[in-house]
Every structure is written in C-alpha cells, then in structure tokens.
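Checked the freezer inventory, then went back to the computational side. Two predictions to log before the end of the day. The first one is the construct we discussed on Monday; recording sequence and tokens without edits.
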Amino acid sequence: HVQLVESGGGSVQAGGSLRLSCAASGYTYSRYCMGWFRQAPGKEREGVAAIWPGDTRKYYADSAKGRFTVSQDNASSTVYLQLNGAKPEDTGMYYCGIPTPIGCAKRPTSYPYWGQGTQVTVS
C-alpha cells in the first residue's frame, strides 16, 4: 500500500535552514508528481511546492519562491524540501502528498495520499 513518511522537521531560528524529506513506498514513484503542503494551527492546509516526474517542472507558492527548493531522488523514492531563510510564518506541520494525475500543484483536495507530517517551528 502507498506510504509516505516525512522527516527532518525541527526548531530553527529565523534565517536558518532545514531540509525536509519524504520517503515514498508502495507505488511506482517516478510516474507521479509530489507536493509539499503546510498547515499552521487554525489555518487551512496550503501548497508550498510541487515537483513533476523527471523534474520537468517545479511549482512554488509565492511565499516559498527564492527561499525553498524542491528536489527528488528517484533511486530512493524520496522528495526533499530545502527551507532557507526561515521566517516565523513558515511555522507549521509540513506534509508531502501524492496528487491525482491532473492534481499536481493544485488544492489539497486533489491529493488522496498524505504522510503524517513533520513539524517546523521558526522562532
């Protein structure tokens, strides 16, 4: 069955960096887009970044442009999110997800598969 496991979250001071990982299993990883979302307490889940198969395209939310980098390693079925220049407003639970075939970089409702999340706290 499909499984997504995030890791790499933690506490960081403003201006610092973190590298989040999402290990995928249970399906043919290289055929699907992967997305990163985050959710702050009391707020809706919002898209942060997405990456298409073969790195043919990458998407970044305006809040992530210039600071976050999404990448992937097909050999290990892992997608990464590098956070640089962290800001307090980046605080939240970060999730990776697999969208429907036409759902990449779209709303969370287009993502039927999610990991359990990893917490990022920026102070």
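The second is the one RB wanted added to the comparison set:
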Amino acid sequence: HVQLVESGGGSVQAGGSLRLSCVVSGNTYRNYCYGWFRQAPGKEREGVATFYTQNAITSYGDSVRGRFTISWDNARNTLYLQMNSLKPEDTAIYYCAADPRSGGYCATWTNFGYWGQGTQVTVS
C-alpha cells in the first residue's frame, strides 16, 4: 500500500518560491508515475506536473510550465515540486499522487491510485 505525505506548503509573496516535498512509502512496484495536482476553492482539481520513473520524462500544465520543476530523488523516496515566480493564482491545496505503471503514458490525465492529504500554498 503506497502512502504519500506532503510538506513544504506555506504563505509567500508573489514572485517568491517554495519547494514542496512528498515522501513516498510502500512503493514496491518497479516503476511509478508520480504527479502533483492542485485544487483552489471553488475550482476543479488541476494537474500540475508528472514524473515517470521508467524514463525520467516530465510533463507540466500550461499554467506552470517554465516556473515549476518536478523531480524525484530515488535515494530519499521523495518527490519534489520547486515552484518559482509564484503568482496569486497558484494559491491552492497541492496534492501528490502515485500510480504503478508499466509502459504507456504518465500524464496528469491518466489515473492515479494513491494520493496524499495535501499541503496549502497561499500566494499574496
């Protein structure tokens, strides 16, 4: 059973940076598609970025491309999201997610079976 625990959220001024972490445990399958998602009040959940451990390929949503960077530290079993040039519209609860994957796509529109509890990011 995969468990994910996010941390690193907080309040920051526009233009600032934050790094989110997601510690993963129970990930015993060979490869995983990991993702970051966010949900702002009154809005639908939005895919932010994905990382596929099979080939280290990443993908980003249009609204964050060029500002956010997703990465995976295999030694620490931790997924990161470096967020730079933050904007007020980035305010949301950020969730990390995981899904065992063997081939195929790793993208925010694919299914994710495991989710963390979320961490709040507020940009003012």
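For RB: DSSP finds no helices and eleven strands in the chain. The chain has a mean pLDDT of 96. Let me know if you want it refolded.
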